[in-house]
């Protein structure tokens, strides 16, 4: 736990897990001035605990803070505090939960003030929770649908950062999609409603004719850390990777021509999530629902191998908690 007051961040403290006591006027509850991150620590066979891309997550945290007018904490200090917190008890990364620990830093405006203005005081909390293996019984492909009725993010808005404000408005459209038999929404751009952006908590990739395509970071898409890891690996494997605006229509056209080989989402929770189908205005692309594609499988094996230290960490993605 860390507090911002008198114009600066105070030293971090380890405190027992417990409820917060907040004024009903706490600014963040009213105006959503809050930012968070989601990352994971992994325990290797010999008991070492390593966090996946800690500095990159903290850099994104700070970029999110900048957009939300929250004073940035010192990323080095915060990184050290997170490692120290986990190192208190390595059994927090328990075997029975797949040897992984989810780490959730959150910062929020703490002023008890109903004025709409940036707060003077903030609280930063890091909470952790063991996470089970995402795929216990093999991969479970997701079925996506576009929506005509809702948008996720606009240019100039906050879609490219990780703030609570982006998630609340997606709950109703996601609920409706579920009622119609879909797992999640694949969001299109707000302005022309034809460019693919991302999925609820994942970025999206298409493998077409042996090459990889993903929407470019256009100011309304969250720059996923897993997305970046996939791009680095594809690059190393000499798989051409195109980051550019992608229309939903061109994906359907490539599918019609038989060129669409694989679709998968990327994110911290599942790492790689095969996409079984995409529905758009009643037209459907269906991939092989029972299978994960070979490229997605290779990515999954490589990233999880690095995370659990069974493969060499050539990119220095892992940082040891010491
Ligand atoms: N998009 C959104 C909106 C997300 O919430 C997430 C999960 N953080 C992602 C993409 C994937 O990002 P990452 O790979 O960093 O988990």
From TrEMBL:
<dbReference type="InterPro" id="IPR043132">
    <property type="entry name" value="BCAT-like_C"/>
</dbReference>
<protein>
    <recommendedName>
        <fullName>Branched-chain-amino-acid aminotransferase</fullName>
        <ecNumber>2.6.1.42</ecNumber>
    </recommendedName>
</protein>
<keyword id="KW-0663">Pyridoxal phosphate</keyword>
<keyword id="KW-0028">Amino-acid biosynthesis</keyword>
<keyword id="KW-0032">Aminotransferase</keyword>
<dbReference type="InterPro" id="IPR033939">
    <property type="entry name" value="BCAT_family"/>
</dbReference>
<keyword id="KW-0100">Branched-chain amino acid biosynthesis</keyword>
<comment type="similarity">
    <text>Belongs to the class-IV pyridoxal-phosphate-dependent aminotransferase family.</text>
</comment>
<dbReference type="Pfam" id="PF01063">
    <property type="entry name" value="Aminotran_4"/>
</dbReference>
<comment type="pathway">
    <text>Amino-acid biosynthesis; L-leucine biosynthesis; L-leucine from 3-methyl-2-oxobutanoate: step 4/4.</text>
</comment>
<dbReference type="GO" id="GO:0004084">
    <property type="term" value="F:branched-chain-amino-acid transaminase activity"/>
</dbReference>
<dbReference type="InterPro" id="IPR043131">
    <property type="entry name" value="BCAT-like_N"/>
</dbReference>
<dbReference type="InterPro" id="IPR018300">
    <property type="entry name" value="Aminotrans_IV_CS"/>
</dbReference>
<comment type="pathway">
    <text>Amino-acid biosynthesis; L-isoleucine biosynthesis; L-isoleucine from 2-oxobutanoate: step 4/4.</text>
</comment>
<dbReference type="InterPro" id="IPR005786">
    <property type="entry name" value="B_amino_transII"/>
</dbReference>
<keyword id="KW-0808">Transferase</keyword>
<comment type="function">
    <text>Acts on leucine, isoleucine and valine.</text>
</comment>
<dbReference type="InterPro" id="IPR001544">
    <property type="entry name" value="Aminotrans_IV"/>
</dbReference>
<dbReference type="InterPro" id="IPR036038">
    <property type="entry name" value="Aminotransferase-like"/>
</dbReference>
């Amino acid at each position: 736990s860390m507090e911002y007051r008198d114009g600066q961040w105070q030293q971090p403290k380890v405190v027992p897990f417990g409820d917060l006591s907040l004024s009903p006027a706490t600014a963040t509850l009213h105006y959503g001035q809050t930012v968070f991150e989601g990352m994971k620590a992994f325990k290797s066979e010999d008991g070492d605990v390593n966090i996946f891309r800690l500095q990159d997550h903290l850099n994104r945290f700070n970029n999110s803070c900048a957009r939300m007018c929250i004073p940035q904490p010192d990323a080095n200090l915060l990184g050290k505090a997170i490692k120290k917190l986990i190192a208190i008890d390595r059994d927090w990364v328990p075997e029975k939960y797949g040897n992984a620990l989810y780490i959730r830093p959150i910062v929020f405006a703490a002023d008890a003030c109903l004025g709409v203005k940036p707060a003077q005081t903030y609280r930063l909390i890091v909470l952790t929770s063991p996470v089970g293996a995402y795929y216990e019984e093999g991969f479970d492909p997701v079925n996506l649908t576009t929506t005509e009725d809702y948008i996720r993010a606009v240019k100039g808005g906050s879609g490219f950062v990780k703030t609570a404000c982006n998630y609340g408005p997606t709950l109703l459209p996601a609920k409706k999609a579920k009622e119609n038999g879909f797992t999640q929404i694949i969001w299109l751009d707000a302005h022309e409603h034809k460019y693919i952006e991302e999925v609820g908590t994942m970025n999206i990739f298409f493998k077409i004719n042996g090459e990889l395509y993903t929407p470019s970071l256009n100011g309304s898409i969250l720059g996923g850390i897993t997305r970046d890891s996939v791009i680095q690996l594809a690059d190393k494997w000499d798989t051409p990777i195109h980051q550019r605006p992608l229309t939903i229509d061109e994906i359907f056209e490539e599918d019609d021509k038989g060129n669409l080989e694989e679709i998968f989402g990327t994110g911290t929770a599942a790492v790689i999530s095969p996409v079984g189908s995409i529905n758009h205005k009643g037209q459907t692309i269906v991939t092989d629902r029972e299978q994960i594609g070979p490229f997605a499988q290779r990515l999954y094996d490589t990233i999880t191998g690095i995370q659990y230290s069974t493969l060499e960490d050539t990119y220095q993605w892992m940082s040891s908690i010491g």
